[in-house]
Amino acid sequence: MQYLFTRLWIGLLVLSLFGHLNAQPSAGGRELKSTIIGQIIDEGQSSPLDYATVSLYNTEDELLGGSITDGEGRFEIESRPGRFYLKVEFLGYQPKTTEVFDLSPRQVYNAGIISVKSASAQLDEVMVTAERSTMTLALDKRIFNVGKDLSSQGGSATELLDNVPSVQVDVEGNVSLRGSGNVRILINGRPSTLLGGDGSGLQQLPANLIERIEVVTNPSARYEAEGTSGIINIILREDQSRGLNGSFDLTLGQPDNAGVSVNLNRRSDRFNFFTNIGANFRNRPGDGNLYTEVYNPNETLISIQNNERTRQGLGLNFRFGADYFFNENSSLTTAFTYRLGDDNNENVIRYFDYINSLDNPVGQETRLDEEFEDETRLEYSLEYELKLPGLDGHKLTADFRYQDESEIEGSDLSNQFFDGLGNPSDRADLIQRSNNNEGSDQLIFQTDYVRPLGEDHQLEAGVRASIRNVDNDFLVEELDPDTDEFFALDGLSNTFDYEERVYAAYVTYGNKFGRWSFQVGLRPEYSFINTELLQTEESNEREFFNWFPSAFLNLELSNQNSLQLSYSRRISRPSFWRLNPFFTFTDNRNFRSGNPNLNPEFTNSFELGHLKYFSKGSISSAIYFRETQDVVETIRVVDSEGNSVARPENLATNYSYGLEVNLNYDITPWWRFTSDLNFFGFETEGRALEQDFAASGFTWFARGTSRFKVSPKFDAQLRYNYRAPRNEPQGRQRSLSSIDLALSHDLWKDRATITLGVRDLLNSRRWRFTNFTDNFFAEGDSRWRVRQVDLTLSYRLQQDKQRDRGGRGGGYDGDGGY
Predict the structure, then answer these.
(1) Is 105 exposed, middle or buried (0-12, 13-18, 19+ CB in 10 A)?
(2) How are beta strands 257-267 and 736-747 bridged, if at all?
(3) Whole-model pTM?
(4) Tally: H helices and E strands in the chain
(5) How far apart are the C-alpha atoms of 532 and 190, rounded to whole Å?
(6) Strands 767-772 and 731-733
(7) What is the dihedral sign for C-alpha 120, 113, 456, 523?
(8) Is 159 helix (H, G, I), strand (E, B) or coil?
(9) What would the pLDDT profile of 290-339 be if each residue is shown by its tens digit?
């Protein structure tokens, strides 16, 4: 622990020193009494531009100071008296220079509202928006704009997330943030049926339906406390420009990938109708290998396992909704979401068994799993917003949504047996089948109240209730060769019911004093969770009442520098799938199981962040530290015959820490570079199953993207990903690297764009790992997907100017609680 904290404080010192070195005095020092104020807005939308750069120049064109705008687009600059002008810059907008003005001693000069134009071109029927920065940085979150990431065209939400800074996606599609899988994923600021009960919906959600992704690494009390490492919020496309506008995308790819997505809006005086439709068929081949040694007292069992799998299916996502504006102060939004999935998967595993050495083969086995998955997910939502009298931002919002989900999975499984030389064995083939019926419903209600108490401080409060029920009926049967009838396998079949109730409230207060600002918040949450195995009459009822405080302290420095120190407490309740003891078992030697006795994790999270904007880009850095109690790790137990069960267990404590740096820089007018570096380490303490699973390690991952403007109509993008090796409680993950390439060309007077994308250009994206304890050693690799080549045609239809900075985003304004 002493070594860990030494690293942490050295990093904090370095980051603080970096911020101090950049904090040069503004235009004359603290003794200056003259002040320049104003507001920056988008000329087309009349909406404020936050984090725009405002620079102060004298008449000799010398830079004297500056500021960055706040969430309302306002800025404030101190200066000595004299003659000056202002220059406003923001990525994706045309620079704006004001007229020269005189500043008298002790004067407060109001520059008024300064409007800036989007760097776009007006066409007769089509408005093509300016190129926005791929990533926009703020102290509390980072916004990844999907539309300008060429490699995302034609892919899924899972593949898109794997390109987002700080985010990683593993071989099975599990999403992690800064190395932790306990991350809360939302759509339009709320839980959604589009995600699926286990997050599998991300693999079927087309990336072309997504406008942007917000990453919140240290959420305040206004956010739902779930997710120890933070929140990922996926914002779907939606516009409120008057008239009819939208986009159409058609994708063809190899391996088989065919999809179409439609985003349409129609806005009139009182109504705004919006729809997102995505349909796709995908074939995702993959493979893997596993080498295992099991050490018994008198012999060593050796097994080599080869896996070939194909996941293919049809997915349909449909969302339709409407906004009704009663007047300029109140509106009602309703939406209906429907998701359909129809998958057919095939998995073939070949086992080669040996005793003591590879020169002594004793048997071979081939297992075939033919699986189908049918799912239907529905969601209804109703949102109301009322702007109240008083200062801007005084409002009340209410949100109600109901979700209903059903899923049926079935598998036909068979095993063929051979002797050590590959000849048919006398052992009869093994025939099995499994069936899994799952249904769930969830009701969510939330209301939020925002009350500005003055120009620089405000109060927020809200309440939230979530009620969820899941029932899972899992049956595994085996064919009796004597009677030719199927019988249920004991220990693998049962009905599992899950009930969850979460009730919460929150209050936050923020204020600003000169260059300092702060926000404090408190969120109490009551949780009730009950699991029950009906056949065996086993139940586990638990309830928790917890307080989740948060605190943020900001310091605005000169030269567009900002520092933020933050703290929050978070929870990770065990999910339904982690509690469910029954899983489908494609591999009948290596099982995966849930644990109905899991306890929630609690995390104290600290972060010190630095943000700097400059004329050609921005850089952000952060040092973070998390202390997690009852941390959950997947523990693998191997018996004397070589069969294993992987199951999540609560360990004692986990300490994780890291340094993250994000750079967004325009090297030349035609070359933009972005990079994401994350260095993090951990120490895990604790025992489970009468074994010590203490572990520690340090690793890092990096991502660099270069985008080239080859010509006014032709773009190219190259991305490199690298993940360094990482230690785990029972082994080690090895390094991984991949390269993505994309080319795009504008067509038809810039009404359309055709994009060719190649993900994993060198086919090198393989997950390699080792696991070991005193009685076994395992080494393997797995490939979730092979190299994918996609061709996407995008057509833009707009009669009015499209917003360039994200807009309403489907009912979430970026400030309300989750």
Answers:
(1) exposed
(2) unpaired
(3) 0.74
(4) 3, 49
(5) 28
(6) antiparallel
(7) negative
(8) helix
(9) 999 989 888 999 999 999 999 888 989 898 999 999 988 899 999 999 98
